[in-house]
Specification:
By secondary structure, this protein is an alpha/beta fold. The chain contains 19 helices and eleven strands. The structure holds adenosine-5'-diphosphate and magnesium ion (MG).
Length: 474
């Protein structure tokens, strides 16, 4: 986000707490100088405004900054005399900084990250970073992304309800919020409500409790798009499900958009009544899956750009290769490795990354190379097959590969070849030694161990071995 826009958003939040007038006076001509490594630096034009900020508003400003940019951990400030007279491009347009947002239908509630709409309906605030354009669809999530875009430009159309499901940390919330933001971008006056299923259930229970209030579904009549995240937590309370069923029908019949997410497809939501399951499956049901390796690399590149951090492409590839269960984790590793490298004043290396992965997640081993036991499907049967494959992969002659030449560009392929024969075909070290001109079994053992070690630190070898494995059909 650009600094001007960011500052306007933060000051808008602050203005709701301390009043617009104070903002106009105290924050006039101030700017965000930079925002790096979780530290935001702001500058004031005069000693007085700076002093005022330091005495009264440090905590509040930090809080408002975090509402817009949760990763900000602290704010530092300074005086820049020049700001008073120049037209600095990062200055906020204070006319845009609004206090109570009377023009809009939404009213922000301090600290709650929620907006209260007419009729007391509460919606969680959208994370401005979760847009559809910042989501990288890759090959695997193209359909989900396209469905979200379609809903964004034509809510209440054919993809209704839109139901996304898939494992944790794969981007469901991002897509749901992105779709909500897209609808708001295209139709500024639509009422888009986003909430988690727990929140939604609480609202229902509250409404049932207050018998005198209008029925729940009537309250939601003004909503144009209802987004409920993680409905696997919906619970099995019959009365809540009934209310939801009515609300769903009411909205659906009125051509309003409904968007839902869950960790599993509708039919597997065991606690839900059948009629709800079948409603949920009525529109578009798409699975969100783990993106492939190339897409994971693209996501990491994007994330490092966002964080303005430089990571060696080899290290990026290594992370992408090893962290594949969740994109949240993928991002987590990147941030952690970067933070560590800041502390130690060194660049992230493959070694530091594999440490970080190990620490963060004990159950998943850094992938050396995994060889499944069931090798029936393989395209290689004999040591000859493997030797052919490896020599053509490295563009070496067979006699070079099997011979005595001790050049690195030949030795490494030779060791890789031994390693593959050992692991895929399970031939003994002695036998492998014989294939390679009668070498001693300890030499073979040493070569295999060496490759095993290097797989942890050398991404080129990792890449070669994996490419070879792929060709073999593993
Ligand atoms: P879920 O709701 O499925 O558990 P989230 O939507 O919270 O997952 O995603 C976790 C993190 O991964 C978020 O920061 C999100 O922006 C990011 N993310 C996931 N998939 C992608 C993608 N394809 N492109 C960009 N960012 C992604
Ligand atoms: Mg989520």
């Amino acid at each position: 986000m650009n600094k001007k826009l960011l500052w306007e958003q933060i000051l808008s939040g602050l203005s709701k707490r301390i009043g617009r007038q104070n903002i106009l006076v105290l924050f006039k001509d101030s700017i965000i100088v930079e925002c790096e490594h979780q530290v935001m630096k702001v500058a004031f034009p005069t000693f007085m405004s700076h002093n005022y900020y330091k005495q009264k508003y440090t905590a509040l400003l930090l809080q408002c900054a975090q509402e817009v940019l949760p990763e900000v951990k602290s704010i530092v400030s300074e005086i820049q005399g020049g700001l008073k007279d120049n037209d600095h491009p990062d200055k906020a347009d204070l006319k845009l900084v609004d206090e109570d947002g009377e023009k809009r239908t939404h009213r922000k509630v301090p600290n709650k990250q929620e907006v209260i709409m007419e009729d007391g309906i509460r919606s969680k605030m959208f994370n401005p970073k979760y847009t559809l354009s910042s989501f990288i669809p890759g090959n695997d999530n193209r359909l989900a992304h396209a469905a979200c875009l379609a809903v964004g430009s034509k809510p209440g159309g054919i993809y209704n309800p839109l139901f996304l499901y898939g494992g944790v940390g794969l981007g469901k919330t991002h897509l749901l919020q992105g779709t909500g933001l897209e609808i708001l971008k295209n139709f500024a006056n639509k009422n888009v409500v986003y909430m988690t299923s727990e929140r939604f259930i609480n609202e229902i229970i509250e409404a049932i409790g207050k018998k005198h209030t209008r029925s729940f579904k009537d309250r939601y009549r003004k909503v144009d798009c209802l987004i409920v995240d993680d409905i696997q937590f919906f619970g099995n309370k019959a009365s809540s499900q009934q209310e939801f069923f009515h609300t769903f029908n009411e909205l659906y019949d009125a051509g309003k958009q409904i968007i839902l997410s869950s960790d599993r497809p509708p039919r597997e939501l065991d606690q839900l009544e059948d009629r709800l399951k079948s409603r949920f499956g009525m529109g578009m049901v798409v699975e969100v899956v783990v993106p492939d390796y190339e897409t994971r690399i693209a996501i990491l590149h994007k994330k490092s750009q966002e964080l303005q951090i430089l990571v060696d492409p080899e290290v990026v590839e290594f992370i992408a290769y090893n962290v594949k269960s969740s994109i949240r984790e993928l991002e987590g590793i990147l941030v952690k490795v970067y933070a560590e490298s800041q502390l130690t004043q060194s660049t992230p290396t493959i070694r530091s990354v594999s440490e970080a992965i190990r620490k963060l997640n004990h159950q998943h081993q850094v992938q050396d190379v995994h060889f499944p036991q069931d090798n029936k499907q393989l395209s290689v049967r004999t040591s000859e097959d493997v030797i052919d494959l490896v020599s053509s992969y490295y563009k070496l002659t067979k006699s070079d590969l099997l011979g005595e030449v001790r050049r690195k560009d030949i030795m490494v392929p030779r060791q890789v070849c031994m390693f593959l024969i050992r692991n895929i075909l399970d031939h003994s070290y002695e036998t492998i030694g014989e294939y390679f001109g009668g070498r001693n079994h300890t030499t073979v053992l040493h070569s295999c161990n060496k490759i095993l070690e290097q797989l942890k630190t050398d991404s080129r070898i990792l890449r070669d071995v994996n490419a070879l494995k792929k060709e073999i059909g593993l």
